[in-house]
Amino acid sequence: MTRRFADKTALVTGHASGIGAATATMLAGEGARVVGVDLSEGQDVADPALWQQLASDLTDIDIAVVNAGIATAAPLVDLDFADWRRTLSVNLDGAMLGVQAAMRAMIGHGRGGAIVVTASIAGLKAEPGTAAYAASKAGAIHLARVAAKEGAPHGIRVNAIAPGGVDTPIWDDMEFFAQMVAELGSRTAATAAMAQIATPLGRWATADEIAAQIAFLLSDAAATITGSVLTSDGGYSL
What we know:
The chain has 238 residues and is α/β, with parallel strands linked by helices. The chain is built from seven helices and six strands, in the order βαβαβαβαβαααβ. It has one domain: Rossmann fold (3-Layer(aba) Sandwich), CATH 3.40.50.720. Helix 1 (18-29) packs across helix 7, helix 3 runs parallel beside helix 4 and helix 5 packs across helix 6. It is globular.
């Protein structure tokens, strides 16, 4: 097995499930020491106090995956303001604080580094019912681009990845998805039906596939890539 990240320290937010779990496992398998942060473990990525508490654990960070997120689905006219604020808080405030913490550590140790922000195709393509989630992910994309410009003089690369459909637990919070599961009889059938409808390739990505793409962006093979948005959506946005 290749060990692209031997002797590297990695920060992964949202490491306990989905894309975050797959990425943390992949990075650790290639030699990285992974520092994980997750909402399910009582760590609110949108709380500045958390990042102050973690500062001493992050001083050696070489690579970071700013991935923690939640989803809200509702028509804009029905969207509860508290749901809007919480989605923006976790997905955008949390992303800013995660990128900020990683950049501070990388500037501090002087070795540079690489950061990937997990955005979404929802941040690039408008769909009904996605106002809060889409706005948060559009903001995360531009956050990554600004961070790339600010980080470049310090040898820090920052990119975003914009997955389309990925079979992760985040869908389980979506009412329309629960209805599809009930109608079609299984979660597997619901995900397959959505992929057939939405993507020219006819399938969603797996979390492991997205993790591999994130690992590429973090690796030396992507040494000249910064400020980019890797769209991985099976052709959904065409």
